[in-house]
């Protein structure tokens, strides 16, 4: 009996060691390129391709200074931040109301409308770009701030609606009935009773929507010509399209673009993780 328990404990220890080794290897596989890119952003051009590589020699902030002074990086950040924030707020607002309607009301054609919402998730976005560009050109919405927002919304709203709908289905009707008996209107019920309950899910889909729009490239490339609407991804694209690419400056822009997303995740990480756990349990 004692020998059996000892063997069992030994197997658990071996399994734990193997698991931790795999986790360390996977983490290194993901973090080493980031570390390499960060060190590249701190090196002058003549030290980037030296062999053997010199990891910590000649480090400087000149690349960051260069991109802010010559690449109009501040304007790119403001444009990207404005597009991402406004699109996320509008998308979450409409997604919350739509999810509430789909989860609480029965009406003719409900299945059709739900299918209509899901369709953008099934159709590759590139398929619609040519007809959309034709329509946008005729309407004068190319190089238009709110025109871009209208294009971003279909890329984030379907997922948000589906996630929030699952959260709302888990809320018992008795909670709403009690609130209605106490005199709550439908709007008060949604904003004061339902919204606080599904807040972790709202924060999670808002974070995913923000990151999706923040990193978006194809739509901005096709529907803008640069100028004040040039986003961070567009800025990196124009830097890479030059004959003499400054890889240190490109890496500097890349790491500047990571900072806002990292800050948002650090602020809302608990809500995001809890929402993922709740979603898995409810699913």
Tell me about this structure:
- By secondary structure, the protein is mainly alpha-helical.
- The chain contains 13 helices and no strands.
- Helix 3 packs across helix 13 (247-282), helix 4 packs parallel to helix 7 and helix 10 (199-214) runs antiparallel to helix 13 (247-282).
- The longest helix is centred in the N-terminal third of the chain and has 40 residues, at 2-41.
- The two termini are 41 Å apart.
Outline, from the CA principal axes?
globular
SSE string, helix = H, strand = E? HHHHHHHHHHHHH
Helix content: over 70%
Give the CATH architecture of the largest domain: Orthogonal Bundle
For the record, give the distance between the C-alpha atoms at the N and C termini, rounded to a whole number. Answer: 41 Å
Q: Which stretches of 5+ consecutive residues score pLDDT under 50?
A: none
Number of domains: 2
Q: Taking all residues together, what is the mean pLDDT?
A: 82
Structural class call reads mainly alpha
Taken as a percent bin, the fraction of beta residues is under 5%
Largest sheet: none
| Gyration radius from CA atoms, angstroms | 24 Å
Number of strands: 0
CATH class categorisation of the largest domain = Mainly Alpha
Could you tell me the CATH topology label of the largest domain.
Answer: MetI-like fold
CATH superfamily of the largest domain: MetI-like
How many helices? 13
């Amino acid at each position: 009996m004692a020998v059996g328990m000892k063997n069992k404990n030994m197997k658990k220890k071996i399994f734990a060691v193997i698991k931790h080794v795999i986790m360390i290897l996977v983490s290194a596989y993901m973090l080493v390129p980031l570390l390499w890119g960060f060190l590249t952003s701190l090196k002058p051009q003549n030290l980037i391709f030296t062999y053997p590589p010199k990891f910590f020699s000649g480090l400087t902030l000149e690349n960051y200074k260069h991109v802010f002074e010559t690449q109009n990086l501040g304007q790119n950040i403001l444009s990207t931040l404005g597009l991402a924030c406004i699109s996320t707020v509008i998308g979450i607002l409409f997604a919350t109301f739509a999810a509430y309607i789909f989860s609480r009301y029965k009406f003719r054609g409900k299945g059709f409308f739900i299918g209509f919402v899901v369709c953008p998730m099934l159709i590759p976005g590139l398929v619609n770009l040519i007809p959309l560009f034709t329509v946008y050109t005729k309407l004068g919405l190319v190089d238009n701030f709110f025109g871009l927002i209208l294009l971003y919304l279909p890329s984030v709203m379907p997922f948000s609606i589906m996630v929030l709908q699952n959260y709302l289905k888990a809320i018992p009707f008795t909670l709403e009935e009690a609130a209605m008996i106490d005199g709550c209107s439908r709007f008060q019920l949604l904003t004061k009773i339902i919204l606080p309950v599904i807040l972790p899910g709202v924060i999670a889909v808002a974070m995913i929507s923000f990151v999706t729009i923040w990193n978006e490239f194809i739509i901005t490339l096709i529907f803008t010509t640069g100028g004040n609407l040039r986003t961070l991804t567009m800025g990196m694209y124009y830097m890479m399209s030059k004959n003499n690419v400054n890889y240190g400056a490109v890496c500097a822009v890349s790491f500047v673009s990571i900072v806002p997303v990292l800050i948002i995740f650090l602020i809302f990480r608990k809500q995001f993780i809890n929402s993922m756990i709740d979603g898995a349990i409810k699913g």
